[in-house]
Amino acid sequence: MDSWIGRGQDSGQIRDKTAGRRPVIGLVLGGGAARGFAHIGIVRTLSAYGIVPNVVVGTSIGAVIGGAFAAGHLDTLETWARSLQPRSVLSYLDLKLNGSGLIGGDKLAAELETSLGETLIEDLPLKFATVATEVRTGHETWVTHGRIVDAMRASYALPGIFSPVLIGDRWLVDGALVNPVPVSAARALGAEIVIAANLSSDIFTHSTTIYSHGASAVAQEVPAEPAPPRRGIRKFFSAERAVKREFFGGGGRPGISSVMVDAFNIMQDRITRARLAGDPPDLLITPRIGQIGWFDFHRADELIAHGARAAERAMASIQEVIDVLAPATPATTSDKATSDNITGRDALDGAS
Questions:
Q1: Quick check: is 94 catalytic?
Q2: Is 60 labeled as catalytic in the residue annotation?
Q3: Do residues 143 and 129 make contact, with C-beta atoms less than 8 angstroms apart?
Q4: Model-level pTM?
Q5: Given CB 3.0 to 4.6 Å as the disulfide criterion, which of 155, 177, 261, 320 pairs with 133?
Q6: Half-sphere exposure of 70 (CA within 13 A, CB side)
Q7: What is the mean pLDDT of each run of 10 residues along the chain (352 residues)?
Q8: Catalytic residue (one of 16, 60, 184, 269)
């Protein structure tokens, strides 16, 4: 049987010499903050092997990577990601203490606006959706039309960190609260074969129950040392620096961000396990990136490489899944010509 995938001169296309119609492939990209840069390596590797999705669904950072890919701006996003350094990451933290989140998110949104501007989801060459959570009701919300930048921002609005985003008449926050790896959305949008990427598979592998724990009789809390007084012009910047110090923590004490993110991470892991058990993808890609923190955006090179390796490891399984779920059938010459021209939304139309 001729392979649907393979490297060669036509590696940008799915090689299909016998099938009358290629299957509708859905790509699902899960949440995970900085770890989401691994999605870039996954998408690049799938494309190199000729796996071109017709449906892309993402949650949180998965919505950002998936949206950039769907809009044809993945190169720009990757260049920006690889350029990030610890100091430049801090520059995107526009602290906003008088709102509903610690970070306004305007600086990061400005980067997305530069590339995607007024791009609408309904104008994309493939089906795309982001997953968000409605504040107060907890409704799982699939954003399937409107500005792609707004859909991304709503999906990655981590509660307490980023301010909620108003889309229509709904205030939306991070979709990982309800569906961290949204396989169900991809199937609902017509995907026949679903390939999903889960970024938290190896973070809490050894989680257990600590059934006997308490404070030591000799344990004493070490008081924090007061910060040295600021003099001259430095005193005008001390407040912001103090807030950032509290935000990230230090001296063994977790900061606000780490407490909130770790709590969110634990919750996301539990929800992901439950959702994937009830609605598993046909193929799950799991980069081994548990040692990389949620705010390690400056490690894009490493993360992209991890994602590429994970996708490479999965290619044999992807081939097997396609052969089993979408076996090739003899096709006439005219059928073959028609099949070669089916891409993006056309493939979905052909499946309906």
A1: no
A2: yes
A3: yes
A4: 0.77
A5: 177
A6: 35
A7: 36 44 92 94 96 96 97 96 86 62 68 89 97 96 97 91 91 95 97 95 63 69 54 51 55 69 81 93 94 89 97 94 74 45 49 50
A8: 60
